[in-house]
Design goal:
With about 350 residues, the chain is an alpha/beta fold. It has 11 helices and 12 strands. It has a 6-stranded parallel β-sheet with strand order 2-1-3-4-5-11, with helices on both faces. The chain has a 6-stranded mixed β-sheet with strand order 7-6-8-9-10-12, with helices on both faces. Helix 5 links the parallel strand 1 and strand 2. Helix 1 crosses helix 2, helix 2 packs across helix 3 and helix 9 crosses helix 10. The radius of gyration is 26 Å and the shape is elongated. The chain starts with 7 loop residues before the first helix and ends in a 12-residue tail after the last strand.
């Protein structure tokens, strides 16, 4: 049988003081003398006293936990976001409770309500659909931060951190234009409405500034009814032939998994990348470094998104002023993009 854990009562008995005196000493209360406080804290260390986290949270009216909602735990993009949140939460001695919404607005609302019922101190929601066609909105009564909100209009009720999607897309297309491409396709998704709209806008802006008018069949959108990561590669694989038929010499993909699927389709169809077709993605997930050829992409600061969101939530919990943040993406050039083949 394991030994019984040392309690505050045990320390009080050995020290010859009251239970409340020990409790105050362990909380560094100014109501007791420094001599008594240090003596009790030293005794607690000698006895290997472990504080009761539940009791402490009840006293402080804090659960020392936060809720994190992502769309998919299988998506490598969110793996980095979660890592950023967890590293900062750990420094603040907070636990992170994780759940997935699977791009379903109702599941997202249910997750938020569940976290509130569990009395977490705050909530972070990635790719949130709050205020984006949901029939009813949750009554969020605790600090909440959104990462890359997908609401068509940025919800002013919540603080947020997001990437400048339009800028990233523009950098990708400008890179292809600089290489000499004039027939550039866009492969997008329908389930991330805000990001897709902004990245399509960046694509159009870059073409417009270069004096290029895209044909309608240069732009192909995946339907909204699939889940990110689990199906994006297969969607990119199945939709690429439409862009090849349109005669483009390069494509910009809304995310890296779509680009990976496009690379698979190219290999199956005998299309050489980048000799016959240049391919650029968006996100800079680790997989992009290891596909053949390695993927040129737009680096989205995934870890920093999670890190900044957690910083913001901590500031909200401590009643400090919070400023929303836009993080800048940048171009990562690898081997999937090159000057167009003169034969094309």
């Amino acid at each position: 049988m394991s030994e019984r854990a040392v309690s505050i009562e045990d320390i009080a008995k050995i020290a010859g003081v009251s239970h409340s005196t020990v409790s105050r000493a362990l909380r560094n209360s100014p109501l007791i003398s420094e001599v008594t406080r240090l003596r009790i804290q030293e005794l607690a260390r000698e006895l290997n006293y472990i504080p009761n986290a539940i009791a402490q949270s009840l006293q402080m009216q804090r659960s020392n936990s936060i809720g994190l909602v992502v769309t998919s735990v299988a998506d490598p993009f969110f793996g980095e976001v979660v890592r950023g949140v967890e590293e900062e939460a750990q420094k603040a001695n907070l636990s992170v409770l994780l759940t997935a919404s699977h791009n379903d607005p109702e599941r997202e609302l249910t997750a938020i309500e569940t976290f509130q019922h569990r009395r977490v101190d705050g909530i972070i929601v990635a790719d949130s659909r709050l205020d984006n066609g949901s029939k009813e909105q949750p009554s969020v009564r605790i600090p909440t931060v959104l990462i890359n909100s997908q609401s068509e209009e940025q919800n002013k009720a919540y603080n947020f951190v997001t990437t400048e999607d339009s800028l990233g897309a523009q950098l990708a297309v400008e890179h292809l234009i600089d290489l000499g491409h004039t027939r550039i396709g866009y492969l997008g998704v329908g389930y991330r409405p805000r990001s897709n709209t902004l990245r399509l806008q960046g694509y159009r802006n870059a073409l417009k500034e270069a004096g290029i008018t895209p044909a309608d069949n240069w732009m192909v959108m995946a339907a909204a009814g699939h889940q990110r990561h689990e199906a994006d590669a297969s969607v990119g694989q199945s939709l690429l032939p439409q862009l090849l038929t349109a005669g483009v010499t390069a494509i910009f993909c809304c995310n890296d998994m779509l680009a990976v699927g496009a690379l698979v389709a190219c290999r199956e169809l005998g299309v050489r990348v980048p000799d016959d077709l240049s391919v650029v993605g968006f996100d800079d997930i680790d997989l992009g470094k290891y596909v053949t050829p390695p993927l040129t992409t737009i680096h989205q600061p995934m870890f920093e998104l999670g890190q900044n969101a957690m910083h913001m939530l901590l500031d909200l919990l401590d009643h400090r002023e919070v400023q929303n943040k836009l993080l800048k993406p940048y171009l990562v050039i690898r081997e999937s993009s090159a000057v167009p083949n003169p034969v094309n």
